[in-house]
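Thread: Newbie trying to understand structure tokens

Hi all, I'm a second-year student working on a class project, and my supervisor (Dr. K.) asked me to get a predicted structure for one chain before our next meeting. I've only ever worked with sequences, so writing a 3D structure as a token string is new to me. If someone could post the tokens and maybe explain what I'm looking at, I'd be very grateful. Here's the chain:
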Amino acid sequence: MKVFLIGMPASGKTTVGKRLAKLMKARFVDLDAAVVAATGTPLKQIFKTEGEWGFRVREATALLDVVRQRGDVVIATGGGAPTFGDNLAVMKHAGPVCYLRASVAALARRPGLMTRPILAAHPGGPAKGLAALFRLRRPHYEQADLTIDAEAAAPAAIARAIADTLPAFARGAARGHRRGHGHGHGHDDDDDDDNHNDD
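---
Reply by user tm_fold:
Sure, no problem. This is what the structure looks like when written as tokens:
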């Protein structure tokens, strides 16, 4: 099973993802780190030389690479990944997508977030930049299969809450797989370091 964690920067995707992978006895992949590994270039340099579009294309390629891998994998995505192209559809087709939800006020208190260039460069200041980014991305995040409140709960509790829901997702996927084969069809499409950018 592939499990995807989405949400704003500093919402805890990497921390929760590592704990969830341990519970699942699965591999953990940080999508930003996967881009760095594939290119051999720090993310800030990719943004500087190729712009956001160049980074997003590389990110989408890294996502497809992870989806094609065998075995159980927990993937922590970059904050902007679900908003680009068909990334969200790719994720939802491959496995459950979990949104780690946190309010703008809670995110603003997370260490280091408000100094990131994408927020610091906003004409209205970092606080307004964060609010604008949240408004832009929230409609994409809210299409997740599962939403978890990431404000107050500890990462271990969040990981356990996600893990407890996965058997139901697995049963649903298995039923869909059997129905698809019965009708001669495939799956239904409906069914904070140097390795992290400022998205």
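A couple of things are worth pointing out once you decode it. Confidence is low (pLDDT under 50) at residues 177-194. The chain has one domain: 2-182. Feel free to ask follow-ups in this thread.
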